[in-house]
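Fold it.
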Amino acid sequence: MKYRVKYWRQWAMFAAFAAICAAPQAAEARGYKAVDGAFGGVVSGRVSFEGALPVDAIEQIAITKNPDVCGTGNREVVWIDVEAGALRGVFVFIDKIGEGKPWPEPEAGAYIIFQKGCRFRPWAQVVKPGPIVIRNGDPGVLHNINAREMIGVEKNRVVRRTMFNFGQPDPGDIEDKIRPRRSPYISINCEAHNFMFGFMMAPKHPYAVVVGEDGSFRIDGIPPGDYKLKAWHPRLGVLKATITVPADGAVEANFVFSASE
């Protein structure tokens, strides 16, 4: 019994010491710290697509519900949107940045998933984890939003975890929360209309953007340092680049996707 007590105490002391050592790393991994200061670092560039588009880049889905609002015939769902070589609908972000500028206030006063004309508007957006407004702008139309965290995107083994899923039969707003556990990548769809899709990113920090119509992006207010920059397209995956951001300086990074990525 004495030996058992002795070894149990040694194990308990070791476990406590390991927990103390791991605590700062765990705390750093859990959050992002907004700090005072004007950071002048900028990364900008362009995302493009080269080669032939895959056959499933555009999908035609029959509209079978609410034709007076959703339209008639087929809904053209553009999964890979390319114009003059520019790839649209891409998220560009800095990976694992621990501190920097605060999140800006959303332009509309809140982060909003807007359902209008049986479409999610916008198709792609960056949101801060936390409260979000789901707005039904289609009178007389029942929407049923399903927001799911996409786990395993960068390993090409995606598992989707539902964050919320509810019907919204009346026009107006419902508030819920975006709470990613393991991944910032999020898909949204309407369970009532099988042609309504969209995507979001909810990173812990504000250094993420959606590219413009010309494929360009710009991320500013970056503290100087070495970073991993990533570009995520929901159908084509993730590309990575290593960048060094100088103090009050700019760096350029471009991404080229193809169907073989």
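Residues 38-102+212-261 form a domain with the Immunoglobulin-like fold (CATH 2.60.40.1120).
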